[in-house]
Specification:
mainly alpha; 5 helices; Four Helix Bundle (Hemerythrin (Met), subunit A)
Length: 203
């Protein structure tokens, strides 16, 4: 009788230990999914929303410069615009870039440097020395920069959508395991009840 009672206690302890391990494991899994979603949300804001803001500001600055040609080449305000452009390019470089994004960003930096060289060269020419060809070269290079910015903007939208899908998949997985955990706990609870109250007695 004592041996049967001891065996029953061991079975009950084993069941409780299993329940504890199950709860601990699912809790760790829930934390992993929560941290994953939190990381994605931070990434979407820091590397996509904020990056889109930088692109928007750069587009405005280049548009001011492009629409002001040839007068903007002589104006002191051009220095202020260039300083702001350099600031936003520097800020954009600190965001997390995908491989495709890094390639487009390198093209943007290259075109920006070439535009700056053209701007410096044209600024030294007298007003009557500026030809339509000179201005066309400047505007053509500016158009290439706008294309770079459009590509970067599209990448932000696509990457933001991809991250949203990853976050949703993580949430769906977490929801599935939560429901599975509840079913298993109910089953284990019933099993423990059977072990404790309906264990067969040995004469």
């Amino acid at each position: 009788m004592a041996q049967a009672s001891l065996f029953q206690k061991l079975r009950t302890a084993a069941a409780l230990i299993f329940v504890f391990l199950l709860i601990y494991g699912t809790n760790r899994l829930d934390n992993h999914h929560f941290e994953n979603v939190q990381h994605i949300m931070n990434t979407v804001y820091q590397d996509r929303v904020v990056a889109q803001h930088y692109i928007y500001q750069l587009s405005n600055l280049y548009r001011q410069k492009n629409e002001g040609v040839p007068g903007s080449l002589k104006a002191a305000a051009a220095k202020g615009i260039n300083r702001q452009i350099d600031e936003y390019i520097g800020l954009f470089s600190t965001t997390k870039l995908t491989s495709k994004e890094a390639q487009v960003f390198q093209m943007l930096e290259k075109n920006n440097e070439e535009l700056r060289v053209l701007e410096t060269h044209l600024a030294t020419m007298p007003d009557n020395g500026l030809s339509e060809e000179n201005i066309s070269q400047f505007k053509a290079k500016a158009d290439m920069i706008f294309e770079n910015l459009d590509s970067l903007s599209e990448i932000q939208v696509n990457e933001g959508g991809r991250l949203r899908r990853v976050a949703q998949e993580s949430l769906d997985t977490n929801s599935f395991f939560s429901q599975l955990e509840l079913l298993i706990l109910v089953f284990i609870g019933l099993l423990v009840q059977v072990i404790i109250f309906y264990a067969p007695k040995i004469d």
